[in-house]
Design goal:
- The protein is globular.
- It is about 25% helix and about 25% strand.
- It is an alpha+beta fold.
- Strands 7-6-5-8-9-10-11-17-18-19 form a ten-stranded mixed β-sheet, sandwiched between helices. Strands 12-16-15-14-13 form a five-stranded antiparallel β-sheet, covered by helices on one side.
- The protein is built from ten helices and 19 strands.
- It has three domains: about 10-35 and about 105-255, Vaccinia Virus protein VP39 (Rossmann fold, 3-Layer(aba) Sandwich), CATH 3.40.50.150; about 45-100, no CATH class; about 260-360, Double Stranded RNA Binding Domain, CATH 3.30.160.
- The structure holds S-adenosylmethionine.
- S-adenosylmethionine (SAM) binds near residues 130, 149, 177, 194 and 252.
Length: about 400
């Protein structure tokens, strides 16, 4: 790719078209007119090392040529770690948890295509991030039809500056996107580039009948499914999950509460004394895209951690800190898994039942699941089986 700024958006559009993400002339025009480099003047490049994942800063000032070429790659570029670290603040590779990014362009553009917007649509975006996707929306629809909400004030300020540089002035809000933007409603389309445990009631209340909501439903076991919902005139909504394997960082207000180390120690000690039985579903279900999604539906309050002691096997712990329930999955030499459980909720029994139902249905991908919303009751269904999504926040202080 030749690193000439004027050519790069068009080259990115060519790539996105070849990849099948970009399918319409209107979105092609938006990609061609949006300078992605303005939204990522600095970012982290991931490297997997013996010490684990490291994040190397790439900045406009330090390495202009490399930075510019990378900015137009079809890559997610992380722009913030641990809710405060930015690339300009560090001089070499660092560790950390990504908390803001410019998402993979093919994913962003594919989602925008799936949103199926009309020229006069009033659109709400949750998760402004760098502002790149906001700019694409503004380029396509005009500033006045785009409202975008970002939780993190520093991230929001950088996005606002980048949008100005790119010649856009959509409605920007700093706050919790799960509250929506009542002053800008009703919306025809709502799109989120962070994931949620359930669909926020405010989005439904602020959606026009017939509106579409495109959002990744995720949870604390890191299962994901991209849901496309249509809002009915009576305020209920129905939808399906789209093909693919798309994941987004969870909305900050839906993030898992930290498990106090004292509680973790108590529960693992109880598990040490609990009887073991063979597990019909192994701990490796976590590595199956839909398997972990189903496990999460069955145990929405559970969080996963892997630990080992003194060179022993890695043990997968599933801990629900609110009900004080836990399960430990240990690989059995020669194959299979054993499980020990403690607490009032038998987490692994629930997961085995749900995963068993999914296996009996032929282990279909998440795109065979459906989602229904009726007030506070939100269910995900596979054929005749329904799982209820948790619509209350964590009852554990963080
Ligand atoms: C993957 S990034 C967004 C990518 C962005 N659309 C882009 O093109 O650059 C997700 C963003 O969602 C934000 N976020 C997380 N929880 C949020 C919430 N409850 N409300 C609004 N924004 C949130 C994060 O701070 C982060 O910047």
């Amino acid at each position: 790719m030749t690193a000439h700024p004027a050519d790069l958006p068009r080259q990115l559009a060519d790539h996105l078209e070849r990849a099948g993400a970009l399918r319409s002339p209107a979105w092609r025009a938006a990609v061609e007119s949006t300078p992605r480099h303005e939204f990522i003047p600095e970012f982290f490049q991931r490297t997997d090392t013996e010490r684990g994942t490291m994040w190397e800063p790439v900045t406009r000032t330090a390495e202009r040529g490399r930075w510019l070429e990378l900015a137009y790659q079809d890559q997610t570029w992380v722009t913030q770690l641990d809710r405060h670290v930015t690339p300009g603040q560090v001089s070499g590779p660092v560790t950390g948890e990504p908390t803001s990014s410019s998402t993979l362009p093919s994913l962003v553009v594919g989602m925008l295509e799936n949103l199926d917007v009309g020229e006069d649509a009033n659109v709400l975006e949750i998760g402004t991030g760098t502002g790149y996707s906001t700019a694409l929306l503004a380029a396509r629809l005009g500033d006045d039809q785009v409202t975008s909400i970002e939780y993190d004030a520093d991230v929001a300020a950088r996005a606002a500056a980048a949008l100005t540089r790119a010649g856009h002035s959509p409605h920007l809000i700093t706050g919790d996107g799960l509250d929506g933007a009542p002053g800008r409603a009703p919306f025809d389309r709502i799109i989120a580039t962070c994931s949620v445990r359930h669909i926020p009631a405010a989005w439904l209340a602020q959606a026009r009948p017939g509106a579409r909501i495109l959002v990744t439903v995720s949870g604390w076991l890191h299962g994901h499914g991209l849901a496309l919902l249509t809002v009915n005139p009576d305020g209920t909504a129905d939808g399906r999950f789209l093909p693919g394997t798309i994941s987004f960082m969870i909305a900050r207000s839906h993030a898992a509460p930290a498990i106090p180390s004292s509680l973790y120690d108590e529960l693992t000690a109880e598990l040490g004394d609990a009887p073991a039985r063979p597990a019909s579903v192994g701990g490796d279900v976590r590595r199956d895209w839909t398997g972990v999604f189903v496990a999460q539906l069955a145990a929405p309050g559970a969080q996963w951690q892997a630990r080992r002691t003194d060179g022993g096997p890695w043990i997968d712990y599933y801990i629900d800190p609110v009900t004080r329930s836990a399960a430990a999955l240990t690989p059995v030499p020669g194959g299979g898994w054993s499980v020990r459980q403690t607490g009032p909720v038998r987490l692994w029994d629930d997961i085995e039942r749900a995963v068993g139902t999914w296996h009996d249905a032929g282990s279909p991908h998440t795109d065979q699941f459906r989602i229904h919303i009726n007030g506070d009751t939100q269910t995900i269904t596979l054929d005749e089986t329904a799982w209820t999504l948790p619509t209350q926040g964590p009852a554990l202080s963080v």
